[in-house]
Write a structure and sequence with these properties.
Layout (H helix, E strand, L loop, with lengths): L5 H14 L5 H16 L5 H14 L5 H6 L7 H15 L6 H9 L6 H12 L9 H7 L5 H11 L5 H10 L5 H12 L5 H10 L3 H11 L8 H17 L4 H12 L1 H17 L3 H9 L9 H13 L7 H4 L3 H10 L5 H7 L5 H11 L4 H17 L4 H16 L1
Helix pairs in contact: 1-3, 2-3, 3-5, 5-7, 8-9, 9-11, 10-11, 11-13, 12-13, 13-15, 14-15, 15-16, 16-17, 17-18, 18-20, 22-23, 22-24, 23-24
C-alpha cells in the first residue's frame, strides 16, 4: 500500500478492507497501526495517504481523528483531502469535535466540490452545537452559492434564540434561493422565540405566498393566541377580502380555520350575509367560497352560495357559457335533496324573474327530473308575470316542454 502506483495501491487496500468486517480485534488493531504508519510521514506519496484514509474510514475508529485532520490542509492534494473527509465522517459522526476541528471544517465549506468536500464536511458539522461566536461565519455561509452550504448555515442559525437571527430568517422566506427559503421555514418552526415576530409579520404581510408560508409556520407553534390577536386577524381577513383582487385573504382564513373551524365558519357566514343584504353578491360569493370542500359547506350554505353566484353575473342562454355555472350545479344538487331549494327560490326577494327564467331554461335541457323542475318554474313565471317579456317567454317555453313530453 506504500506503492506509488495507484492501481496497485487500490487493489492492496481493497483486499485488506475486505477482511475487516469479520476480522478479530487484534487484526483491526494491526491494520490501524499500519494505517498510522502510512499517514505519519509528511512526505508520504499521495497514494499512501489515500490508502491510510480509506483504512481509517473502514475501521471507523475515532482515534484516527488527528491523522485525518492532518490530511485536510489546502496544500494537500485534493484526492487526499476528499478521502480524509469521507473517512472522518465515518469515524467521527456523532462525536464532539474540538474548536480547531470545527474551524477547519467550516473553512472547507467555501469549496465547490459538493460530493467530495461539502457533503462529508456538513455531515460532520451538522451534529455540532455552535455558539454565538460562529454567527458571523454562519451569516456569511448562508450567502454561499452552494445550496447544501446555504441549508446548513440557515439550519444552524435556527439554533439561536435571537431577535436579529429571527429577523434574518424571516427575511429569507422570500429569498430567491429555494434552499434558503425552505430551510428558513424549517428553522423558524423550531424556534419558539420567533412566534411573536412571525405573527407581527403575518398581520403586516402584503404578499400571498409569504402569508401562506407564515401561516403554516405559525400553526406549528403554540396556537393559544390572545383575543386581541385573533380580532386583528379577522380584521385583516375582512380588509384583504373586500379591498384586494388577489387571494391574500385565503391565507388568513386558512390560519383562523385551523385555530377554530366553527368560529371561522360563523364569521364567514355572517360576513356573507352582510354583503348579501347590501346586494354585494360577488363579495358574498367570495366569502362563502371559503367554506367549499369543508363540513361547514352544508345545504343552507350551498343554497346561499348558489344564490349569490346566480346574482353575481349576467345571464346568457348560450350553451358554452352555461356549461360550468356553479350556481346551476349546486341548485341541481339541492333540488335532488330534501332541502326545499325550489320553494325557497320562488319566494326569494333577491331573485328576479330573469334569474328564475335562466334557471328554468337550463333545467329544461337536462334530465327528465330537471325538466319537471323547469315546468314548475316556467308555470310559476307564466302565471305571476304573464304580461311581461319574461312571462311570455316562459309561456312559450312551457308549451314546448309539454309538446316534448
Amino acid at each position: 500500500m506504500a506503492s506509488e502506483d495507484f492501481e496497485t495501491n487500490r487493489a492492496a487496500c481493497d483486499a485488506v478492507i475486505a477482511t475487516l468486517p469479520h476480522g478479530t480485534p487484534r487484526l483491526r488493531a494491526d491494520v490501524f497501526e499500519r494505517a498510522e504508519d502510512l499517514a505519519a510521514s509528511s512526505k508520504a506519496p499521495r497514494t499512501a495517504l489515500v490508502a491510510a484514509a480509506k483504512l481509517f474510514g473502514a475501521l471507523g475508529d475515532a482515534k484516527a481523528r488527528k491523522r485525518l485532520f492532518a490530511m485536510l490542509p489546502a496544500q494537500q492534494p485534493h484526492v487526499v483531502r476528499t478521502h480524509a473527509l469521507g473517512a472522518a465522517a465515518n469515524c467521527l459522526r456523532g462525536q464532539k469535535l474540538t474548536t480547531k476541528e470545527i474551524e477547519t471544517l467550516l473553512g472547507m465549506l467555501d469549496s465547490d466540490d459538493e460530493n467530495g468536500v461539502l457533503r462529508p464536511a456538513v455531515r460532520l458539522l451538522e451534529d455540532q452545537t455552535l455558539d454565538r461566536t460562529y454567527l458571523g461565519t454562519l451569516n456569511r455561509l448562508a450567502e454561499s452559492p452552494q445550496p447544501l452550504v446555504k441549508r446548513f448555515a440557515v439550519s444552524k442559525l435556527g439554533g439561536f434564540e435571537s431577535g436579529s437571527v429571527v429577523k434574518t430568517l424571516i427575511g429569507y422566506l422570500t429569498d430567491d434561493s429555494y434552499a434558503r427559503r425552505d430551510q428558513a421555514a424549517t428553522s423558524l418552526k423550531t424556534l419558539p422565540a420567533a412566534r411573536a415576530a412571525l405573527m407581527k409579520e403575518l398581520l403586516d404581510c402584503d404578499e400571498e405566498r409569504k402569508a401562506w408560508t407564515l401561516a403554516d409556520i405559525l400553526l406549528v407553534h403554540d396556537r393559544s393566541w390572545k383575543g386581541a390577536t385573533t380580532t386583528a386577524l379577522y380584521k385583516r381577513l375582512d380588509a384583504t377580502l373586500a379591498k384586494r383582487e388577489d387571494r391574500l385573504y385565503t391565507a388568513y382564513f386558512h390560519f383562523l380555520d385551523a385555530l377554530d373551524a366553527d368560529d371561522a365558519a360563523a364569521h364567514v357566514r355572517e360576513s356573507a350575509e352582510k354583503a348579501r343584504k347590501k346586494r354585494d353578491f360577488p363579495t358574498s360569493t367570495k366569502w362563502l367560497s371559503l367554506l367549499k370542500g369543508s363540513a361547514a359547506f352544508d345545504a343552507e350554505t350551498k343554497y346561499a352560495f348558489a344564490l349569490s353566484e346566480l346574482k353575481s353575473h349576467k345571464h346568457t342562454l348560450a350553451a358554452p357559457a352555461r356549461r360550468h355555472d356553479a350556481a346551476l350545479d349546486l341548485l341541481r344538487e339541492l333540488i335532488r335533496s330534501p332541502f326545499p331549494a325550489l320553494e325557497r327560490l320562488r319566494r326569494e326577494r333577491a331573485v328576479a324573474p330573469e334569474d328564475l327564467f335562466y334557471v328554468a331554461f337550463n333545467f329544461a335541457e337536462g334530465s327528465r327530473e330537471d325538466k319537471e323542475v323547469a315546468r314548475e318554474l316556467m308555470d310559476h313565471l307564466a302565471s305571476k308575470f304573464s304580461r311581461t317579456k319574461v312571462g311570455k317567454a316562459a309561456k312559450n317555453k312551457l308549451r314546448l316542454l309539454n309538446r316534448a313530453a
